[in-house]
Amino acid sequence: MMINVTTTVPMVEQFRCSLEKKKKKEKKEKKKTMVMMMMMVMMMKKKMKMKMKTKMKMKMKTKMKMKMKMKKKKEEEVFIHMNEESCTRQ
Q: How far is it, in rounded angstroms, from Cα 33 to Cα 41?
């Protein structure tokens, strides 16, 4: 049984080439998906960061409001106290 070498070598070469191309394509696809995943993760992180920032801002706002309320209360108390003193003097 004789195998014709002139036809088999190019065929094998072609097959190998197609395999390499396939591998390259798969690698490219894999890389693409990885990049996409990374982008998604980055976006999620960014969103979370923004959420945290807004949360912190809100906390700060409420703290400031509370401080202002407390300050007002204290001022009122002092004012009332002063009024009481002036009343007792008269």
A: 12
CA 15 to CA 5: how far, in whole Å?
15
User: How far is 49 from 56, CA to CA, in rounded Å?
Assistant: 10
Q: What is the pTM of this model?
A: 0.40
For residue 2, report the phi and psi dihedrals to the nearest 5 degrees: -105, 135
- Helix, strand or coil, per DSSP, at residue 4: coil
pLDDT digits (tens, 9 = 90+) for 1-45: 556 555 667 777 888 888 899 999 999 999 999 999 999 999 999
Q: What are phi and psi of 71, to 5 degrees?
A: -60, -45
User: Nearest 5 degrees, angle CA 31-CA 45-CA 39?
Assistant: 20
